[in-house]
Write a structure and sequence with these properties.
The protein is α/β, with parallel strands linked by helices. The protein folds into two domains: 54 residues, Signal recognition particle alu RNA binding heterodimer, srp9/1, CATH 3.30.720.120; 69 residues, Roll (2,3-Dihydroxybiphenyl 1,2-Dioxygenase, domain 1). The protein has two helices and seven strands. The strands form two sheets. It has a four-stranded mixed sheet with strand order 1-4-3-2, covered by helices on one side. Strands 5-7-6 form a three-stranded mixed sheet, with helices on one face. It is globular and about 40 Å long.
């Protein structure tokens, strides 16, 4: 059996703002409308489908999304995060502010999108060794 993730719905307050943010920060193509969604396509054919939460005023439950990137992509994306003056952390608990991690011999950093979802970029999969 071959099971692969195809897409996930990302709840948000403003799909235009949130989808555009992800596209810009990761350097991806423009989000495309599909039905009620704004779709951000990733390199591995998985899509992040942004959908305006009908009860956004009550708050969006923050989720975590991690993206595996190359060393060069990390430098570029991290540069975008810093140029926006965004907070970032080395850990998901957000204790190590202003730092990156070096887990498994790679680099990783956590940061938030406009809806408070915790995004992460890593250059090595966790558990891949050092």
């Amino acid at each position: 059996m071959t099971v692969r993730l195809d897409h996930t719905i990302v709840w948000c307050r403003d799909k235009q703002e949130s989808a555009r943010y992800l596209s810009e920060i990761l350097g991806l193509g423009e989000p495309e409308a599909w039905g009620p969604f704004l779709v951000v396509e990733l390199a591995n054919r998985v899509s992040m489908d942004y959908y305006d939460h009908p009860d956004a005023g009550a708050g969006i439950a923050a989720q975590h999304y991690a993206f595996l990137v190359t060393e060069d992509e990390f430098d570029t994306i991290f540069g975008r995060i810093r140029s926006r003056g965004q907070e970032f952390w080395a850990d998901p608990a957000r204790r190590d502010a202003g730092e990156i991690n070096r887990n498994d011999g790679g680099r990783g950093v956590y940061f938030c999108d406009p809806d408070g979802h915790l995004l992460e970029i890593i250059t090595r999969p966790y558990g891949s060794g050092s």
